[in-house]
Design goal:
Elements lengths: L9 H14 L3 H28 L2 H9 L13
Helix pairs in contact: 1-2
């Protein structure tokens, strides 16, 4: 594990302290978890974008064309 010096605006640090306290974790744990979540989100976005680029759009449209046209169920309307 590495040590990282981090400069944050006072207002952000205040929120971090409050949220970490509410969650019952240390500031270090909170920040590490937040960074891990962001890394995961970016990695997932990149992965899905790469899959989308390989997609066969014509095949996708052909599959969608097979879906029966009917009214949405109650509560599912736009």
């Amino acid at each position: 594990m590495k040590i990282l010096n981090l400069s944050l605006p006072d207002c952000v640090l205040c929120y971090i302290k409050e949220l970490a306290s509410k969650k019952g974790v240390s500031i270090n744990q909170f920040i590490a978890s937040a960074v891990a979540e962001k890394v995961s989100a970016i990695t997932t976005e990149d992965y899905l974008r790469a899959l989308a680029e390989r997609a066969d759009k014509a095949a996708f449209q052909a599959i969608l064309a097979k879906v029966p046209k009917r009214e949405p169920l109650a509560g599912d309307e736009l």
